[in-house]
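ok so heres the complex, two chains, lmk if somethin looks off
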Amino acid sequence: MKRIFIVDDEVFCIKILSKLIERYQLPMSICGSAISGESAYLMIKDMKPDIVFIDIEMPGMNGLQLIRKIKETCDYNTHFVIISAYDNFKYAQEAMRLDVTDFLLKPIDNDEFLSMIERVFGFRFTSNQRFNEMLAYMHEHYNEEMQLNACAEMFHMSSNHITRLFKQNLGLGFTAYKNQLRIEKAKDHFQNTDSSIKEVCQEVGYVNINYFYRVFKEYVGVTPKEYKENNKKWVD
Amino acid sequence: MGYVQNYEWGTIDWLTDQTRNGGETLDIGLTTIYPGKAQERHIHYGDEQWLYVLSGVGKSTINHVECTLKSGELMHIPAGAAHETMNTGTSPLVKLLISYPKSMDDQRETHNTRYASSNTMVDVSTLSINLNDSEMETINAYSKTLALPINIMNTGGEILVSNDLYPMACKSLCQINTDVSNCHLYKNKVHYGSPAYSEQTAHYCKYGLAVIDTPIVSDGIMVGIIRGGHILTDTHPAKMHPQLKQHVKNLTNVPKGRLRIILMQYLKLAKHLASHQLNNVSSFKKDDNQGINPLDFQYTDTLKEDLNLALGKILSIQLNNHFLFNTLNAIAGLALDENSFKTYRAVVDLSKLFRYTLRSSQEFVTLTDEVEYIKNYVDLQGIRFGERLTVEFNIDDEALKHYVPFNTLQPLVENAFIHGFAQKDSNMYINISISVGEQEIELIVTDNGLGIHQNQKADLLRQIESSTLPRRGLSMIMDRLQLFFGESARYELFSLEDLSSNQNAEEDTPGFKIKLSLPKRTLKKEMLR
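and the predicted structre for the whole thing:
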């Protein structure tokens, strides 16, 4: 369960967020809220929530100042999400500099909220709670040996039911989803490290390098070697 | 002799005009006032004048200061001073009149151009201005803000348009509403023309109300007059005409500061009307290769003023944005609180629509943005029409990254609602297709509404191609696209006949179809034409 905290001088965002969490049955709970930057600072420092939603325009310390203060004085980093009535370039720029996770405009759009959650957790939540837990497990253990039957047993669902849930919610099967997850991680490795193809292959959970080559080509369109040469961000 | 203006009280014989001495700013004339007559109290807002009495005797009042006139007397009338002159003798009172334009502010800049086009003898034929829908809209807008009479007259003194906002005093004392010539200031149809009074002037009626004349000068030629005002100007109650006193409650006694604003408003309206005239003739103006035309500056200035006005409006909207979106956020919150997800979605859609249209600085946007905007728009229309409305999108993902002018798609779709579905109560279908070709992006909007027949299509095409007919709806969209892309933006309209001869099996009933082809553009900033 992720704990979220809301800083806004009006109650409506709390209302919207709690209703959206309820509607999409997200594994989140509102652990607290504050109506000013000053009181929020102490509470956040104490509670260490997983996501903090902050309005910019507030009496006293504004939202951006609050984020800066937390980043500078607390040995703790979290996902900060701005919620603002202004889509002002200066705000957006400063928010980017502060490395906030997202910038949502008021009134909060349910679709944008869901994509934001997807970015924070790495996957899209569904209305099925057990399925969400399984997805969370897959995202955490993507590089381990993972079979549909084993997952089914672990989460007390039948294999057929899981396959159906995958098709319904994500439009692809269990294996395809697992491969997609691993290939995305592999792309990350190629971009940011100097690991060899063999190392990356093992790192993301593939035993057979030929199979890794085939799957990579199928998802990305180029071979791992070509990708590694053309997308390397890593420098000596 | 120059150009003579005849009045009931005498004449003004303008000695100077461009053909004679090429003068640019000074006007010289001979004023003759008949015995026993008086030139009524009036004000020249832009000119300062010197009067030198050549013969006769009289009395003059300048800003309430009286002085006697006799041969050899010199008088100075500052710009903006009310003055009147009376012949108290038995022979004509003749004065040399020297009129020098004094700038009230930057309004003077048009002065040097006012003789620009008259290189023949001074033309005393009646000139008039064209008034079409957009001009009428401008006049209405000014009428609302001024709340004073506005009469647009040709140079022969005939009224072309009037807003009939005369004060009660003029209606009951002079019955101006039954016939304007009941007002003695309107009775005398003076022929207005260059060079006389090309500045703003005010004339006082016998009851002491000021009637303001503002010339409309286009391309250096006076093409009309705006007559308005009918106001009391800073008049002490004791000096008020006794018959006026009963109406004083309904009359504005205008202090100097506000008078200036009123004068500016009339001047602005005159400038607008003048620039509209230029606009309408701009198609043949392009042909003369005489270098930079000073009038282009005049036009540009008016445009700049308009732009500043619009910017001001946008700024005031932006100031209120915070309030607006916070309120919408509150409504969205309440909707969810009451478990009405539909209302919540409608509020979110509406906010997005507002945000998109408030983006003022964006000329070009990606089709992704345009499509999202149009989805918000049809979602909102969906709330109104429910299941009767079906909207289908056929969008080539490849097209989405291309840039098009801001707000290209929505007016095409809105067209379906305004015209196509005007009388439709059964199923409404709209298809929006976007595809990408070798060099072009193709946008097609089809509806199953009323459609247009071949003759209506011809009318529509004529309106779009015309440079003088009022711009609205489709013709406005085309104007904008032409501005951005020139001839490389193309469009095609399909009438009912076009569609039925070439009917697709899937489409149930043909309605209207419009196809736009725009050049591909993958960068936001490119050299504009």
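quick notes: Chain B has four domains: 1-102, 106-285, 288-358, 362-529. thats all i got rn
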